[in-house]
Fold this sequence. Notes:
2 domains; Enolpyruvate_Tfrase_dom; 430 residues; four-stranded mixed beta sheet; RNA3'P_cycl/enolpyr_Trfase_a/b; UDP-n-acetylglucosamine1-carboxyvinyl-transferase, Chain; binds phosphoenolpyruvate; Enolpyruvate_Tfrase_sf
Amino acid sequence: MATVTAEPRPWLAPTASAPVSTAVTLPGSKSMTARALILSALADGPSAIERPLRARDTELMAAGLRALGVTVDTGDSERWTVEPAPLRGPARVDVGLAGTIMRFLPPAAALADGVVEFDGDPHARNRPLRPIVEALRALGVSIDASATGGLPLTVHGAGLVEGGEAVIDASASSQFVSGLLLSAARFTKGLVLRHEGPPVPSAPHLRMTTHMLRAAGATVDESVPDVWTVAPGPLSGRTWVIEPDLSGAAPFFAAAMVTGGAVTLAGWPESSWQPVGRLTELLTALGAEVSQGPDGLTVRGTGTLRGITADLSEVSELTPVISALAALAEGPSELRGVEHIRGHETDRIAALAAELSKVGAEVTEFRDGLRIEPRPLHASSFETYADHRMAHAAAVIGLAVPGIELTDVACTSKTLPEFPELWAGLVARS
Ligand SMILES: O=C(O)C1=C[C@@H](OP(=O)(O)O)[C@@H](O)[C@H](O)C1
Ligand SMILES: C=C(OP(=O)(O)O)C(=O)O
């Protein structure tokens, strides 16, 4: 069952009356938890996932794997266990609004013996899927998709996938590549996947996929740009230790920046598979001081919030929170390179342009991004479009601008069901 947050609709974002200075402990990375679940389900022995993310996206992933016959025990929030089994249909999978499920699970379902049906939230049907469906067909999988090539999908699992070579245009989502690679070691001939088209976004997420595949024992070659090779072979069960979710931490870091305080993300590892270097560059350019020590990763507000010009293609899921900071900055910002986020939980470029304009910013919408000119901001209703990161953006603005009313905050359950309580606690302690 997905977690439901009983928060009022609309939700008035709390305003900070003093600097937010605190340490936060946040759950594990959504992206790492999703990959650990898939790799564990395809392994030849049991696995444990320590400090996973328990949220709608990962609970639905666990439920999807259970529907395919895998034993996933999520009873202990600190340590989930996965006992693989031969995958089988018939099964039905609810993907919710999760890109990770709709792109990572169909390739695994193709290995199942039986029919596996996929569907999700109304907007999930609009999210791009065609390239991965066509690549799977080229690899010998029988799939029925909607007229637009997306959900609802039916995968006719034959118990094996021939695999081999495939060409894909992954410019709309790195998850098409990650999804195919995660199951590829179990394809009879493995996989040689070549991307052809405009650049693939989210390179750090691709590196996370190849790191985790190697950690599970797969042989992966990514030495040729835009070509990924996974040799056929077994995957090992293991213990995955999940890092705190860096993208989920972004609004909390932004709180330090907006209020001139300091927020430490506790439990941050010395070396990470998430794009902490890029986040540090961006927050520093915006005016923050970022440091790492035994207590964790700390972002300190300096009282200065500068506008920036940045290509966010590597860290596109940060666009909403960075846009919120840009709307509160001293000068204009131009955030580009993220056309594909029009296919995220909502069309994030259009949604940010509409909502930031409503609160008073001057916004120009480009095909691949936004120009944001700060203006005096004012109270307003803020539509969240069922998008957790739109809610984060609104909450960040609300710290500085009284009267920001989110149409819905429960959408944050996608990746952090505790968000409303954690956010209120942050301000209460300020
Ligand atoms: O592989 C992953 O876990 C993700 C990859 C990225 O997707 P896109 O490449 O579609 O942006 C990112 O935005 C998403 O939140 C998570
Ligand atoms: C784009 C996102 O999610 P998804 O994994 O559903 O694509 C996101 O979390 O910002």
